[in-house]
Amino acid sequence: MAISVRNLSVDYNLSHVTAHALRDISLEIGKGEILGLVGESGSGKSTVAFALMGLLANNAKVTSGTATIGGRSYDLTRRDATAPLRGRGMAMIFQDPMLSLNPVFTVGTQLCEVLRRRLPGGDRKAHVAMAEEALAKVKLSDPKRRMGQYPHELSGGMRQRVVIAMALLSEPVLLIADEPTTALDVTVEAQIMREIVSLRDRIGCAVLLITHSLGLVTEYCDRISVLYAGERLEHGTVKQVQQQPGHPYTRMLFDCEVAIDRQRAVNVTENRFTVIPGELPDPFRRPSGCIFNGRCDVSFDACATTVPDEFAVGDAADHGARCLLLAGS
Amino acid sequence: MMDAISISKARLRFGQTIALDDVSLAIPQGTCFGIVGESGSGKTTLMRAILGLQKLDQGDVCILGMPLSHSRAALKKRARVLQPIFQDPAASLSPRSRIRTLMGEVATVLNEPLAVTYERLGVILNRLGLPKGILDKYPHEISGGQARRVAIARALLMKPSILIADEPTAGLDVSVQGDLLNLLQDIRQLENMTLVVISHNLAVVRLIAENAVVMRAGKAVESGDVASMFQSPRDAYTRELLSAWPRLRVE
Question: Which of A73, B104, B189, B230 has the fewest CB atoms within 10 Å around its CB?
């Protein structure tokens, strides 16, 4: 495995109470693989990314967790554990590209900064040429002119392309994309996802795609991990999970997706949307038993008391889910 | 039957940008109408024009057969017929007032006793699945999904016959989104309301709207009943939008 994260737990300390944002999360991403990390808002998806990058807020504390990236091990409980990797081994694409670009520097300056960090002592002209090449690779029109432009002069899709070009230049082992297309239109979304895939093909990095869109995951990812209220409930290849969801939550999440080819019924009352009733559990006091117990449609008595271990789903060794229903099989 | 909203030959420019380019459409009473398109296509500008918040360079807007007037008195009168739900619900709730105060303002506008308004509010909150305790909270103390439902509750409290929702599900989780859309559909049928939904989510519009218009760069490129439009889109852009939609692959 190119990347693995083991037993990552993160707490947020508020004035009187402690919220457990992540509990014992483990992830594996192979070289050249795209892992889709899905979950509702508040499930801790972004906290995983921030913990890996060392960008957690001051009141957050990593209580346990190690990461193996590019053959080296990092103790995530230490402050700035992965700082040497920023801009060299890890790159991140954020939801809002305007926030990851500096408004007072030109695109060219910011791209060359990445190269100065990765290839110190390099020749400036060579850097500029490489930066222009990167902009051309992410299919930004007229790269020479773009180099001299400021972020505010570009559209949302163009800015996200600049950020991808930056990631391309840093040649990371791990690329984290946190909702990279949420702020963009559908047609632009497809283009940006294609650029991320082609970046992966070019440098063979592992990609962690954080999203709430199952459509994106089934279309572009190799593997999927499902997060709920800070716990990983299921993981496997996209095909395995889609064909045989091991956890009721995964099944219900897939049922909620509205298919574009779903026909409208003439009888208006039949045009219903599927929902998962109930709300996320209290982040301050974890209920006993299975974390999904309160909202599950197939729960039984033991679910309220026993915290399920991870069980294999079907015969596949790399497809597991934490549900007591799998215990007997 | 009279159209709830009809727009004829609307044109509007912002400097060099053409925001609305000869847009004409009619929304029949009691139906659900979808406006789809990408950002910058003029969806929200069209909504603002319908609400009378944006004057047109050319063209007319009629609400229930009456031409839109921009006088203050007309705006006040229109508020009883037409209610918007804006894209960012938290931004449309004053951060300095408790939700009870915000709802109480409706009584002043409608000129009805506060007790009567609160009585109706109780029924609406119940139907929206909001706890009574929410009235004592400030907008920042509630979640995004709740803020949206509070905005809907306030709009419904005005007893409108037309409800316009701008991206009602943007930024919500699939399950919360479904809940909200089911609710809007129920309310529409129960109150026989006209519902206009502005959205970039084609799958959602396909399911809830009877008729829709696809906008691009200020133009209405295709319009008609949803079933045939999605089955056999005539315009190249509509086809592009449909094919770009990420779909669940079932193998």
Answer: A73
